[in-house]
Specification:
Shape: globular
Bound molecules: 5-S-methyl-1-O-phosphono-5-thio-D-ribulose
Number of strands: 14
Number of helices: 11
Strand order of the largest sheet: 6-5-4-7-10-13-14
Distance between the termini: 25 Å
Length: 355
């Protein structure tokens, strides 16, 4: 399944609408800025790396509409689109990371005709997706070293191919190991309130022939206590310099439980998710979403009193002390994270190849 791609004629971004899964596989062609903004905000495209890939293609499609302008006008329009798309969701750093990367192209190529700059933008957007495929593959290889055949693995939210481009991050080692004939027993938290675990993770794993059991979020403690879980694998939306990790709401609870039961808790994500400008998780902005998601969404009728107050943070921060390792495309970072994260970022800055 291709979740994000550029249309054949390069004018639109084509996405698999994740809000309609698993019941319906519908592809949407997005051409204007408002629809692109809404696709991110409504989670039609979601998962930190996939949002970054989408943003690269989106800003290319929008920029090419102005290829006949002079550089100043083109740059002004480009920056307007950039700020607009960037404001759609605050927590996953991959969104601003991809948009900044595209901006760099526009600035570095400023002495060329605008039409040529647009061609460079297309190349860059495709490179973001290509690199993501390589990164997920490398993360999957490193992650596979952390588990053995027959292990039980608990995951939260969805960090599979739908949230990236191929393999995924947290699901990557599971899918790669399965391809190699290994067998894992995966426990997928349903992940309230938007049910990414139920709708997307269990769907992806079942399709790939993985032995997956769906559980409600409040059952994680029980399956851990039963001895059915040997490792927890989760994705990430932003990793601070000290190793604190923002990921889907409920992740920190899983980490606390895992520590209580002595189960290693691993975070898997590409270096594009590491944000060294955030010193700790305290500095990560957490997205607050519509209370209706808790009260009504996915129910046939409202499941809470109409006027009841709700608190609906979309992410939480897991303290670095609870994390056994952060698996990147350059290897597994261990505590102290200040040093190990800086090391992998230096490798990326030097343009070193991942495995
Ligand atoms: O709100 P979502 O569905 O975009 O949140 C996604 C997550 O929290 C994922 O676990 C994270 O982005 C990692 S995806 C490889």
């Amino acid at each position: 399944m291709e979740n994000v791609r550029l249309s054949e004629d390069g004018t639109k971004v084509v996405i698999l609408d994740q809000t309609q899964l698993p019941g319906t596989e519908v592809y949407l062609d997005l051409e204007n800025a408002e629809d692109m903004y809404e696709a991110i905000r409504r989670l039609q495209v979601r998962g930190a790396p996939a949002i970054g890939i989408f943003a690269g293609y989106a800003i290319y499609c929008l920029a090419r509409k102005h290829s006949d302008c002079d550089y100043q006008t083109f740059y002004r329009k480009f920056m307007e689109y950039k700020e607009y798309l960037n404001s759609s969701r605050p927590t996953a750093v991959n969104l601003s990371w991809a948009l900044k990367r595209m901006q760099k192209v526009v600035e570095e190529q400023k002495n060329r005709p605008v039409e040529e700059i647009v061609c460079f933008l297309k190349e860059e957007s495709m490179a973001i997706q290509e690199e993501d495929i390589q990164m997920c593959r490398a993360i999957s290889e490193y992650g596979l070293r952390l588990v053995k055949d027959g292990d039980g693995i608990l995951t939260h939210c969805n960090a599979g191919p739908l949230a990236t481009s191929r393999y995924g991050t947290a699901l990557g080692p599971i899918l790669l190991g399965t391809e190699r004939g290994m067998q894992f027993h995966v426990y997928a938290d349903e992940t309230r309130p938007l049910l990414q675990g139920a709708r997307l993770t269990s769907y992806e794993l079942q399709k790939a022939g993985v032995d997956v059991t769906l559980i409600c979020d409040n059952m994680a403690s029980m399956v851990m206590k039963n001895g059915w879980v040997q490792a927890c694998f989760v994705g990430c939306d932003r990793v601070a310099a000290n190793g604190d990790v923002a990921n889907k709401i409920g992740t920190s609870g899983v980490a606390i439980l895992a520590n209580y039961y002595g189960i290693p808790f691993y975070v898997l994500g590409p270096t594009s998710t590491i944000d060294l400008s955030c010193r700790t998780g305290e500095e990560i902005q957490i997205e607050l979403r519509d209370p209706e998601e808790i009260k009504k969404m996915f129910y046939e009728r409202p499941m809470a009193p109409e006027e009841v107050r709700c608190y609906n943070p979309s992410f939480d921060v897991t303290d670095h002390s609870l994390i056994a390792g952060i698996v990147t495309e350059y290897g597994i970072c261990r505590a102290p994270y200040e040093k190990s994260l800086k090391d992998v970022m230096e490798k990326r800055a030097k343009g070193e190849r991942c495995v």
